[in-house]
Every structure is written in structure tokens, then in C-alpha cells.
Amino acid sequence: MSPLFRRAGPPRDRLVTLIRKPGCHLCDDAQVVVEKVCSELGVPWERKDITEDRELYEKYWEQIPVVLVDGRQHTFWRVNEDRLRKALGD
């Protein structure tokens, strides 16, 4: 299994990645949901900026914001709090 993809496990072993860009209101909205859910469940999360990563830009520029759970695309454009919780095992 590629190290990019993690298996489901305890919340502290999961990783949520928010791929976004500056000045994106949907990205700001998505970050609020990701921060809330991850904080409540104890799941680490990271933010990546497509303007600083050419590979991410080429892959996701039409879909941002994009949320990855354990390296796999979970959603894009709008983040549903309940769906993210379910994906994280709550």
C-alpha cells in the first residue's frame, strides 16, 4: 500500500487534508467544517495551497476546495459535516 494512503484507524491515526487557495470563499467555508469536525474527533488535519504546489494545482484546480481523508479524495466544493464525521468513523 502506498504511504500516501492510510488505513482507517483510531482518530489520531487518521489525516484530513484540505486543498485550497487564497481568496476562495468556499475554501474558507470548508476549513471551518474541517477544523470543527477534526477538533471534536481528535483527528489531525493539514492545509495545502494549490498555488504553492504545481502537482496539486494540475490535479485539483477545478475542484477546490478538495478534502482528502487518509490521502483519498472525500469531497470537493462543499464539505458536509455529517458526511465527514461518518468518513472518520464517528
TrEMBL record:
It comes from the Bacteria. Pfam families: Glrx-like. Gene3D superfamilies: Glutaredoxin (3.40.30.10). This is Glutaredoxin family protein.
